[in-house]
Design goal:
It is built from nine helices and eight strands. It has 263 residues and is an alpha/beta fold. An eight-stranded parallel beta sheet has the order 1-2-3-4-5-6-7-8. α4 crosses α5 and α7 crosses α8. The chain is globular and about 50 Å long.
């Protein structure tokens, strides 16, 4: 039997993919289970041109869902002039709260690195132009990502699903970014992200699922969903020496401020 998550009022899942199976096949049930666990808002990511319309439709149809749209580093080959013009128009939608996820993924290298770098730089420029934050996916590429960020005027944003070391966390914090922690930080094999979560300032920490991926302990290996952010919150609160409700409040306040979410 799948363990039920604790109920921690006021949680915000800052990164999920609600249009992926199995959530897409039971969206109302997914949102109901999230609400039962205390999740009040979900930030859905549409990270390729084909996903943007679905992201907007989900955010328009469900008051507790907000959208982020952009071009994932895996899809960087799609970040041509036409796609970026379309993205520039769509990000002005009032239900779109950030640009992304963009960034660099040198682990899978599904797009050439030169195209990942260009796509990231151009989406940072777009985020600055539309005065919205950026959501960055950075895997095995922190140094190159810092170079891209440092070459431009500052753009507020999120390092989603942070999996780096405490030193890498400090480098992003020094650049003004928020760190978002997924179920990976609950894995026994991931002491680095867990220590990064421990040292992250209370006004810069965020919580996410990246559902349907990366389900936290004790549901690791199952399909993830927004309700399970409560497991991550409870375990990281223990790491930080806080009550789960305290961490949930801080992370939710950060999400509301950065993404301009309603109270």
């Amino acid at each position: 039997m799948t363990p039920l998550p604790p109920t921690i009022p006021g949680l915000i899942d800052t990164h999920c993919h609600l249009d992926y199976a199995p959530m897409a096949d039971d969206l109302l049930g997914t949102l109901a289970r999230a609400a039962a666990a205390g999740v009040v808002r979900c930030v859905h990511i549409g990270c390729s041109p084909a996903a943007w319309a679905r992201a907007l439709a989900l955010a328009e149809a469900h008051e507790q869902v907000h959208a982020v749209i952009g071009i994932h580093p895996h899809e960087a080959v799609m970040a041509d002039d036409a796609a970026l013009r379309e993205l520039a128009e769509l990000v002005t939608h009032p239900r779109v709260v950030a640009v992304g996820e963009t960034g660099l993924d040198y682990f899978y290298d599904r797009s050439p690195r030169t195209q990942q770098l260009e796509a990231m730089a151009r989406q940072l420029e777009l985020a600055r132009a539309c005065a919205k934050p950026v959501v960055l996916h950075i895997r095995d590429a922190h140094a190159d990502a810092w170079a891209v960020v440092d070459a431009q005027a500052a753009v507020p944003g999120i390092i989603h699903c942070f999996t780096g070391t405490p030193d890498e966390a400090r480098a992003w914090l020094d650049r003004g970014y928020h760190l978002s922690f997924s179920g990976i930080a609950t894995f026994p094999s991931a002491p680095g992200p867990r220590e990064a979560a421990r040292i992250c300032p209370a006004d810069r920490i965020l919580l996410e699922t990246d559902a349907p991926y990366l389900a936290p302990v004790p549901v690791r290996g199952r399909k993830n969903e927004p309700a399970y952010v409560a497991f991550t919150c409870a375990q990281l609160a223990q790491v930080r020496g806080e009550a789960p409700e305290q961490l949930a409040r801080a992370a939710a306040a950060n999400a509301r401020t950065l993404l301009k979410l309603p109270a």
